[in-house]
Amino acid sequence: MTQANSSLETTLKNYINGQWYASAGEPLEVINPATAQVLAQVPLSTAAELNQAAEAAAAAFQTWRRTPATQRIQYLFRLKTLMEEQFEPIAQTITQECGKTLDESRGELRRAIENVEVACGIPMMMQGSNFEDIASGIDEFMIRQPLGVAAVIAPFNFPSMIPFWFLPYALACGNTYIVKPSERVPLTMQKIFALIDQIDLPKGVINLVNGDKQIVDAILDHPAIRAISFVGSTPVARYLYSRAAANGKRVQCQGGAKNPVIILPDADIDMTTRITADSAFGCAGQRCLAASLAIMVGEARHTYTEAIAEAAVSRRVGNGLEASVQMGPVITAQSRQRIESLIQLGIDEGATPLVDGRSPEIAGYEQGHFVRPTILQNVDPASEIVKTEIFGPVLSLIHLDSIDAAIALVNSGQYGNMACLFTNSGAAARKFRYEAEAGNIGINIGVAAPMAFFPFSGWKDSFFGDLHGQGQHAVEFFTQTKVVVERWSQKDWSRQF
Ligand code: NAD
């Protein structure tokens, strides 16, 4: 075991080839968004440091790929145990650097651990297939082999969960790995790597390099890195996808979102209100599965509008470390500014602010980056605010006359991360499930997040690639298939034995 950072008020380190290293890169402040206090300095590492990590991972691959899968997963069992033991301190770190409530941090960490659990099934999941006698005396096999060095580039909004959509599968399949966390929330991975350091993986199997665009570009161009997983905004996803593909790499890029929920007149309005309020305002709207548009069909408008306004006004906003708080701050002062200017854009386009959460006073947290829940009503379906990802606690209300018009509006969007329907009608639910152009569908669900054993299935501009993160898709992404066609001479062989 080597020494990581003992306190949060320090400059973070990289973890390369089984050792903690101070980086030569410029430091950047990591800010607690609830208090605006500096938590630590994160280094913006250099391309030379990325190269060091990639070379260590490439060297480690030669032995790691030959380590039987049943042994590889023993490290993951140990990691799960340590993550369970350190569950509360890690959840607190997530809240400190990311701003979400402690319960939300616990929820995402649980999802991270579930991916470790699923990846422990790799001896079953990584199996190939075979067929005897494809021709007389000839057999054919398909086997899965690891790729080599792979890397993940993560966003700020789920500092523990998102790297774990990929990391446990990459390792279990026999790849070696590099993690590049978001430079805005690097503390969580620092903590998790302190646990990884204790499970005694062979040196170089997993590496942590902190940084920003410079490190991302170094990953995209490094010849030893065979596969890249990215989660973040759509413009960056598109950039990564094309540059990584041009360099011949396997790549999966999850992008931004603008998630609609349709509310039919027969929906249970109490349940719908509670669930959609959690979806729109949970994690301060900074979830890629946050509801952003509520499309009320027919009479649903009368019951839902009043109920969701009440839910928005009564939501308790503050420091996520405090037990009574239901919504924390947004990530940075710039995010807050961007969200507030998008609310203004909606108003300029003709929407009415039913609940206006701009410039709130949060007692004791005057420096924090807070926006209270906001609801715009009478939003024109053709307006910019309907198309633009806000990534903040803002819900736009639209009124339409029919489910067909509502589904047409859902399908007109650029993104396809999630779409949800609230109804008591099985026929309406089936129609919606069949026709809605989104990869994650909720029926009376507000955050349709797939469990670890299902793929996280964004569509359209929410995803570039074909194989998604999590479960069997991840196993396919982190392996290459090899097909063997085999024949043995039958001539006189039995006389030799
Ligand atoms: P981001 O795109 O700004 O950053 C993501 C990562 O890319 C970070 O590690 C960052 O260092 C790096 N990066 C940023 N700009 C870059 C550039 N120009 N060139 C190369 N690398 C760059 O995203 P974010 O603000 O951290 O996260 C929020 C976004 O992520 C939202 O759009 C949200 O919808 C999306 N998101 C999507 C999913 C999904 O599953 N589809 C999940 C979570 C978040």
Automatic annotation (TrEMBL):
This protein's record includes keyword Oxidoreductase: yes
InterPro entries attached to this UniProt entry: Ald_DH/histidinol_DH, Ald_DH_C, Ald_DH_CS_CYS, Ald_DH_N, Aldehyde_DH_dom, MeMal-semiAld_DH
Source superkingdom: Bacteria
GO BP term, pick one: thymine catabolic process
Gene Ontology molecular function, alphabetical: methylmalonate-semialdehyde dehydrogenase (acylating, NAD) activity
Matching PROSITE patterns: ALDEHYDE_DEHYDR_CYS
Taxonomic lineage: Bacteria, Bacillati, Cyanobacteriota, Cyanophyceae, Oculatellales
Protein name according to UniProt: methylmalonate-semialdehyde dehydrogenase (CoA acylating)
Top EC class of this enzyme: oxidoreductase
UniProt keywords, alphabetically: NAD, Oxidoreductase
Organism whose genome encodes this protein: Pegethrix bostrychoides GSE-TBD4-15B
Residue span, Aldehyde dehydrogenase domain: 20-484
EC numbers: 1.2.1.27
Database matches in Pfam families: Aldedh
